[in-house]
Design goal:
The chain is of the alpha/beta class and 1094 residues long. 54% of the residues lie in helices and 12% in strands. The longest helix has 48 residues.
């Protein structure tokens, strides 16, 4: 018995400990259900209102105080007082969150019981009748699952809720009631953990419990899905249960970004949406110019469906809002494509010759030299099919491993002997390609430029210019020419490297497809689905476009970006659910502090999981798959054949057809037919070939006839890099106790086996003298394959862990900038931020002026801010640095106040005149403001400006200047950070850690950005004046809260995210304008809920 077994014996497994902790809560829920389920329908709804009031009462005093503080911050207070109030408000917000959690934990048993009882009533009754309220009437006007009926004998009107409605384009009848294990899953989700539930255990229903409970706080719950079909379907499927209790429900994917409808969706108690759209809306909010433009509220609680896909697979993928850049279509990919294609073909021909020589030498018994050539061929083109075929022969894999072990020792000191004859070297494990000197020379000859790949040593060149040139103008010209040459060659080298990656690392119909409209579409490795709208970064997507001879899209510039990982870490409480999270439990905890709890199944799993069958070649494997499919079809069982890429699915389809087997194919090219194909996949003797698309979220229904025949048969044609994907495929069979089986067919030529797992298995194959059509089977071999998958997972985790350190640096900076931006939009902390800008600017100025004369100091101050020091030379010479900073900061504050007061005094009579004479015609007034160099036009609320006697103008000016400067500096900073991330990778050649260099340099860049930002904001405000002649009135504007002209550059923004999926359009019931309103008021529809609509 091992040490781990002893600990399990003493303390139990983690799953047992988790269940032991949850059991008391489950007992309380079941006990509460006994009483709750006896209540009438009206009493049940009244109980919900009672729980809402209970939670509200716990936080009422603190919420009231927060509102009071907000009102005070909007007033004219001293900055010190505002800082104290802001600090108090932040503490109260945290306290409210804690009090809400305490209150929700207290009412959990009752809330869960209410939701279970509601599900039971809808499942057992076609109609559920309650006393109608205003919310029922409003719903009846727009939804067909609620109907208002007049009360009898003077009784109030009744709202009749039907148990049938439309969800995801299909008519459904509610038939589900929560099992005990689903109650356990709900408890786990409420506690902010990940619930791992087997496929078919009803995750969507489980989520109704914590969603309902947390929505009672009124702070909003976000239900996150992986695509917009699921978000729309689930909001319509589960929505009526929440609405029955007066909770509002909507889906952001049904509405356009930045629209009033989307803003209302976020204001609902429960909001459904895709992970990407939640992230993009956060970015859009941080590009807004007014509170009216914001759609999201505080990130309170979110449940992420398929959490492993969102928070592991897609977590480091950046969401990007970008726009066109100057010369964005002036790219070099098409120009250098022929040279890179020639380089690629030369290497392919070279590897062919090396492999043939290796085969001859090995056949002659010279394994030493033959092995060297075999390893060289492998380093040059590991995906070369003849090479893969040769490595499957007895002893070849071991020979390659032996040679590789020799050359990787001593930090690969001898490796140049292998790689120097090649044009480039591919590392399949790390997904990298590096050019050799031979490759660089070939490119240089192709373009007739010996220095094509030689980047100038900028430091040495500048030193030489300083030493040899005396004329300042000539010196400046030479430096400019040097930097221009460096920039040109850097871009050229980057273009060539990305093209080489496109040719060597990315395959058509595996990593991407070409759509009918000639666009390159990325195929998600984990799900097999097209990733609509996604583009590879750093020019790689343009390189693939050039390779495939489709239109190379123009380059764009990043305006705002965030990774899903950092977006979801903003939530006060985060939870997730999936069928496969246990294998990534360590990563979930280390990054998100999310614990994974495995939920027991409601019924024992009846699926039979067979051992893997291992063949020498792919051809033998595919032949065996076909024979197995024929056997299963004869038994009347449906078969789901899983593949890892589009090419394999289409190849198998052709092979099946030659054997007379008709199979439907589901892959990225056929995604529009997904619902139709899945609906037929469970029928008797149906064969479905599918990529990973069928492995997640698809529910294959089986008839009693199919269940009797043995259920759905799963055949995997290759092991995926991730165990989670294989488990998802297996999980399509054996749902809710259904019979089924699964088996994987593997060959030594498969990608996983070639890269990570074939050494030991190949040795077994060689010892046994196995023939091509024979298969190996055994638990030990299946475990060896899982070990190979673990190696890949560890490798991927290492890559993700490396990326997170870069991402975290960017995230800290983003949070600081967006916090300042949000303060400006809200307007209540502008004075505090301005005061901090003055302190920082004064400190930096005084630090940099050490040893400077008073006259020079005054000149710098005048040049930057157009103000004098505010103190004399004697004070400057005698005072300590801190005293000078304090005095200068105080003087800057006085100058700012004088400027603003001058604006107010000049504008006040104009605003008064316009408001009193034309106030009923205009909402806003346009006011030009200048700093002597540029003019901006402010759109100010006319009524607020009048009532504040012009002070609103000063506040709007400060707000707009801060927002404009933040956006301009942040946009430039993002570009510099992208450049930095690329350039620091060269630090490894100087024996430095790139991450350490990145952190130091990014800190310096951020400090410089803030310094420049503060200076530009203060410079404008301290110089501002109204560039209008006397007696020339400001121009009223008629538009509703218009954003200033500073936003005009955002009109062409493009969201780099998923496009909308065209779902079936279901027409709601049509109500005539003269028909009675469905709400039961007795009025015609045109005079009630249809007013203004018909």
């Amino acid at each position: 018995m091992g040490l781990a077994d002893i600990f399990k014996k003493l303390f139990g497994t983690k799953a047992e400990r988790d269940m032991k902790a949850i059991k008391p809560l489950l007992d309380k829920v079941l006990a509460a259900y006994e009483d709750i389920d006896k209540l009438s329908n009206d009493e049940l709804r009244a109980k919900t209102e009672e729980l809402k009031a209970f939670v509200a009462s716990r936080i009422a005093d603190d919420e009231k105080r927060i509102a009071e503080i907000k009102a005070q911050l909007d007033g004219d207070l001293a900055i010190e007082e505002k800082e104290k109030l802001a600090t108090e408000s932040d503490k109260l917000v945290k306290k409210v969150d804690e009090d809400i959690e305490t209150a929700l934990n207290e009412i959990l048993p009752q809330a869960f019981a209410i939701m279970k009882s509601t599900a039971r009533r809808f499942a057992q009754n076609a109609e559920v009748e309650v006393t109608a309220n205003d919310f029922d009437r409003k719903l009846a006007a727009s939804h067909d699952f609620v109907e208002i009926r007049p009360g009898k004998d003077g009784e109030p009107d009744k709202a009749v809720w039907f148990n049938s409605w439309t969800a995801g384009g299909n008519r459904i009848t509610w038939d589900m009631v929560h099992y005990d294990v689903q109650l356990i899953g709900g408890i786990v989700l409420h506690q902010g953990k990940i619930a791992e539930m087997a496929t078919g255990e009803g995750k969507t229903l489980v989520a109704t419990l914590p969603v309902f409970l947390n929505a009672l706080s009124g702070k909003g719950v976000h239900m996150v899905t992986v695509n917009d079909y699921l978000s729309k379907r689930d909001s319509e499927w589960m929505g009526p249960l929440y609405m029955f209790h007066g909770l509002s429900v909507d889906c952001i994917d049904k509405h356009e970004p930045n629209s009033d409808a989307r803003r209302k969706a976020y204001a609902c108690d429960i909001t459904f949406g895709t992970n990407n759209e939640f992230g993009f809306d956060y970015l859009r909010d941080n590009m807004a110019f007014s509170q009216q433009d914001l759609v999201q509220r505080k990130h309170q609680y979110a449940i992420v469906d398929e959490v492993d896909s969102v928070l592991i697979d897609d977590a480091r993928t950046p969401l990007i809002i970008s726009g066109p850049v100057e010369r964005g279509d002036d790219q070099q990919f098409a120009q250098y494509k022929p040279f890179v294609e020639n380089l690629y073909n030369k290497q392919k021909a070279l590897v062919t010759g090396i492999l043939n020589d290796a085969k001859k030498l090995i056949a002659e018994g010279n394994e030493k030299e033959g092995g060297v050539l075999l390893f060289r061929a492998y380093k040059g083109y590991p995906k070369y099919r003849p090479l893969i075929k040769f490595l499957s022969e007895p002893g070849m894999k071991q020979l390659l491993q032996k040679v590789e072990n020799y050359y990787i020792q001593d930090n690969e000191k001898e490796m140049p002997y292998i790689t120097d004859p090649l044009y480039f070297v591919i590392n399949e494990k790390q997904n990298t390609v590096d050019m050799t000197d031979k490759g660089r020379d070939l490119l240089a000859q192709s373009v007739n430029d010996d220095n094509f790949f030689v980047l100038p040593d900028v430091g040495s060149a500048i030193a030489e210019i300083e030493k040899t040139t005396t004329d300042p103008a000539e010196k400046r010209q030479k430096k400019d020419e040097l930097m221009a040459d460096f920039a040109l060659k850097s871009e050229r080298v980057h273009t060539v490297i990305q093209l080489l990656k496109a040719y060597t690392m990315f395959e058509l119909n595996v990593d991407y497809i070409i759509s009918d409209d000639g666009k390159i579409k990325i195929v998600d490795e984990q799900t097999g689905r097209i990733m609509e709208g996604r583009r590879w970064s750093d020019g790689l997507h343009q390189a693939v476009e050039a390779k495939e001879n489709v239109k190379v899209e123009a380059a764009t510039q990043t305006f705002a970006t965030i990774t899903l990982q950092n977006y979801f870490r903003m939530y006060h409480k985060l939870a997730g659910m999936t069928g496969t999270a246990e294998t990534e439990a360590g990563e979930f905890w280390s990054i998100y502090k999310l614990d994974v709890v495995v939920i027991p199944t409601n019924r024992p799993i009846a699926r039979i999981d067979n051992n893997d069958l291992i063949y020498k070649t792919k051809q033998a494997k595919y032949n065996a798959v076909i024979e197995k499919v024929i056997e299963l079809r004869e038994q009347g069982r449906p078969v789901l054949v899983g593949t890892t890429d589009v090419d394999t699915s289409e190849l198998l389809s052709r092979m099946f057809l030659r054997r007379g087997i008709k199979a439907q194919v589901l892959n990225a090219k056929q995604h529009a037919r997904e619902a139709e194909i899945v609906a037929q996949a469970g029928q008797s003797s149906t064969v479905t070939i599918a990529t990973n698309m069928a492995g997640r979220g698809t529910d294959i229904k089986l008839s009693d006839e199919v269940k009797a025949a043995g259920g759905l048969a799963i055949i995997g044609t290759e092991r995926h890099d991730s165990r989670r994907v294989d488990r998802q495929l297996r999980g399509r069979a054996g749902r809710q106790g259904d019979p089924g089986s699964s088996i994987f067919y593997i060959s030594l030529e498969d990608k996983l086996m070639r890269i990570f797992g074939a050494e030991k298995i190949a040795a077994v194959v060689d010892r046994m003298g196995m023939q091509e059509n024979e298969a190996l089977e055994g638990k030990m071999l299946s475990k060896a394959i899982e070990t190979a998958q673990k190696k890949v997972e560890e490798n991927n985790f290492g890559i993700r862990k490396n990326l997170i350190e870069y991402d975290d640096v960017m995230n800290y900076q983003r949070e600081a900038v967006y916090a300042r931006r949000r303060n400006a939009i809200n307007g209540d902390k502008i004075e505090i931020d301005l005061q901090n800008m003055m302190i920082d600017s004064a400190s930096l100025l005084v630090d940099s002026s050490s040893g400077m004369s008073y006259e020079d100091f005054s000149e710098i101050l005048m040049a930057r801010f157009s103000i004098d020091p505010g103190f004399d030379e004697a004070f400057y010479n005698k005072a300590k640095k801190d005293d000078i900073v304090s005095a200068l900061c105080h003087h800057m504050q006085e100058c700012y106040q004088r400027r603003m007061q001058a604006l107010v005094e000049k504008l006040s009579p104009i605003i008064k005149q316009v408001y009193e004479k034309q106030g009923n015609m205009y909402k806003n007034i346009a006011i030009p403001i200048s700093d002597g160099r540029k003019v901006i036009t402010l759109s100010v609320d006319l009524e607020k400006a009048y009532k504040s006697e012009g002070r609103e103008v000063a506040k709007t000016l400060s707000k707009n200047i801060i927002l404009y400067q933040i956006d301009e500096h942040w946009k430039e900073h993002l570009r510099e950070m992208d450049d930095l991330k690329q350039s620091v990778q060269n630090a490894v050649h100087e024996q430095k850690d790139p991450k350490v260099v990145y952190k130091l340099e990014s800190y310096n860049l951020f400090a410089q950005m803030l310094e420049s930002l503060n200076q530009d904001v203060l410079s404008f405000l301290l110089r501002s004046f109204i560039p209008i002649k006397e007696n020339q009135p400001s121009r009223p504007v008629q538009a509703a809260p218009a954003q200033s002209r500073l936003q005009a550059h955002r009109n062409d923004l493009v969201t780099n995210g998923e496009q909308k999926v065209k779902a079936p359009v279901i027409a709601d019931k049509k109500i005539g304008r003269n028909d009675p309103c469905p709400c039961g008021s007795g009025l015609k529809y045109k005079n009630c809920h249809g007013k203004g609509l018909v």
